[in-house]
Amino acid sequence: MAVDISPAKDGGVMKEILKEGEGDETPKAGCKVHVHYTGTLLDGTKFDSSRDRNKAFCFNLGKGEVIKAWDIGVASMKKGEIAMLTCASEYAYGKRGSPPKIPADATLKFEVEVIGWNFEDISPQQDGSIMKYELVAGDDDTTSPSDTSLVNVHLIGKYNDKIFEERDVQFNLGEGEAHGVIESVEKSLKKFHQGEKSLLKIKSKYAFGKNGNAEFNIPADADIEYIVELKNFEKGIAAWSLEPAEKIEQAKIFKDKSTNYFKAGKLRLAIKMCKKIIEFIESGDWEDDIKTERDNVLLSGYLNLALYYLKATKYLEAKQNCDKALEINSNNEKALFRRGLAQLELASPEEAIKDFNKVLQIEPKNGAAVKQIAICNNLIKQNLAKEKKLYANMFEKFAQRDKQREEEILRQQPDVMKGTLGEWGQEERPGGRDATAFEKENPNILMLNANGTGEFKNM
């Protein structure tokens, strides 16, 4: 017997179960569902079938990837269930139909078998590192939380089916680290609706990584689970919705937060809050009466972000923020000094020394700049010595190679002092005499008067 399962109870989706499924679970929004189906018109004409292709059809449930009737009908089915879905045209292809096989205003029948489903993949690289399965649906009429939203959540963390933490926590999205909320849980909340409860399966790289968590007795490289319930939230503050003066006030709040996080040793959060300063007031049109205040706050944002990046050993980012600060004030002592430090770490002492010298022009008593100039000069000398040694070794290698080539060429040439041209045989001595002791020791010398005849005496 067919049952009306359309939300409006208007007969738009009628479902008749042909074969009962397994268990009690049904797929939730976001799950990747695997099904077989056969579609027919009311007169029995078949227009499509996955079985004819011998290949299951996959789609993400509740995301509008299929006709509305399917998102409704499949969400009600269990694993292994086979059902007939009768779909009114407004829940299928409507007035346009799907030519040439499906005419306009057609009611369709689908025999659907649910093979199974996977959790929704919400990991950044879509590699299955963070999988989400909805346990209790949230309020679809509400939006999801965004950055700066104040969220009130209940967390249950599990490892090997054992609970390692369970608590209620309230925080602003983007600042979860300060409340012990791991980043993967925090980011997943941007996909929740108010009242939703979902299971998250999190691979180690998005959990506690190679360090594990000693407090929770979780070893290195451990995969974990969280059951997260979003009880309620307040919408985040969007820069576009604020007047210029309100943007500056909000930027000041971010500035104070970033300073406090930095002092507390929470460098990542300090960087996040500094970026918010820039996000809120970097662009836009500013009237003269508040532009000076805006520039001062923005300058502080760039300077602090440069400092934090130096601490985080991200020297290129530090230099870039100093450049931005110097666009506002080309003689800012801190910006020049911090850019000099970044240049030095980027192996550009020649550029760094220019910044430190300019610092001394602004403030001749800046002892830190004097020390850095000495470091730069010493590094430049070391680099020159290394280059000199490098070139000397290079030239020595070239000379040695040339010498080896010359020796090889000489070895390949014939020796004119060997053989019959240079070695004296007995037949060449006067009278065919035997060689003297001197001639034996010096085979290339012939003693013409060695026979004592005085034959060449007067030559």
Ordered list of secondary-structure elements with their pairings:
Layout: E1 3-4, E2 13-19, E3 32-41, E4 46-49, H1 50-53, E5 57-60, H2 68-74, E6 82-87, E7 108-118, E8 120-121, E9 130-136, E10 150-159, E11 162-172, H3 183-188, E12 197-202, E13 224-234, H4 244-263, H5 267-281, H6 288-311, H7 315-328, H8 333-345, H9 349-362, H10 367-412, H11 437-441
Antiparallel strand pairs: 1-2, 2-6, 3-4, 3-5, 3-7, 6-7, 8-9, 9-12, 10-11, 10-13, 12-13
Helix pairs in contact: 4-5, 4-6, 5-6, 6-7, 6-8, 7-8, 8-9, 9-10
Keywords: Isomerase, Repeat, Rotamase, TPR repeat
EC number: 5.2.1.8
Protein name: peptidylprolyl isomerase
Question: What this model shows, in words?
Answer:
This protein is an alpha+beta fold. It contains eleven helices and 13 strands. The strands form two sheets. Strands 1, 2, 3, 4, 5, 6 and 7 form a seven-stranded antiparallel β-sheet that branches. It has a six-stranded antiparallel β-sheet with strand order 8-9-12-13-10-11. The protein is extended and about 130 Å long.
